[in-house]
Amino acid sequence: MLIDAIHGAKMSTKLLVSLKVLVIQLNPQIGQVDQTIKRTWSILDKVTKSATYVKPDIILFPEFALTGYSFHARKDILPYVTKKDEGPSFELAKSISEKFQCYTIIGYPEEDDEQKLYNSALVVNPQGGQIFNYRKTFLYDTEMNWDCEENPEGFQTFPMDFSKCAKLSNEDSYNRDVTLKASIGICMDLSPYKFMAPFNHFEFSSFCVDNNVELILCPMAWLNSTSITDKQTLHNNSLLEAAKNKIAFALKEQGLPLAGSQGIYQLKIGDSQRTPRVPSDDSTSEYKDMDEPDMSNVNYWILRFFLFVL
């Protein structure tokens, strides 16, 4: 990462910034918050015992990291909503930040003082204090089912302070402190508004470019991996295939797409017309094909940040 460090009114110097980010996926099940927390600590324990472990600057969890995502009505999600500075998600993030002396970002269902509901992500600093709470701005269809509100502030920025993570190009070690302007985008935030806005409006990435955002953090649960299953029990191909089919059936039953829904577009970059959603005809993007990364989603996210490569 290369950023400008301002010295005086006219001169700026480029700083090289090196951050270590630990990204954790949990596959939470609705009604199993305690089990998911236990699994989180188990994962972190394994990571710290790895021969390649390096202390992270940020630990990033997905949206609704502990609760599961697919709620079909307001009454279904109410047992899991919390205020921004209390509840299992905040307490877990606080404990992790204090233990690892890093920032922790975790997605959770929020209820404000007026009983409005949000898909939110809280940011806890290395001292265990909450420094920011972001509410998802662009909502996905599923969130409408439980009366989720759009972020009234829209996309936002906030500062993050890092110790000994920066250096000048002619320096050998990262011994400088740095404050980065950060922004959070949660899944649908990266897509066209309601899948109806022209694709080339690039709403979130345009905001980041226009506001000189230096660090973009995206808590998302989109992945395609056999981590969703217990590999120890999948000791033959028939069991693996059965597990894949079970996952595919469960997704259909919950109204979730078999293909990564962010990647099923016919793209017309130079066209300002609405970009239609179309069914994917590429079977490799289906969740039942769990042995390979879902590159359709990866390519889609990269494309949504096209402005950064212009």
Automatic annotation (TrEMBL):
Coiled coil residues, start to end: none
Organism superkingdom: Eukaryota
GO molecular function, one term: protein-N-terminal glutamine amidohydrolase activity
GO biological process: protein catabolic process
CN hydrolase domain location: 19-310
Protein name as catalogued: YJR062Cp-like protein
Organism of origin: Saccharomyces cerevisiae (strain AWRI1631)
Taxonomic lineage from the root: Eukaryota, Fungi, Dikarya, Ascomycota, Saccharomycotina
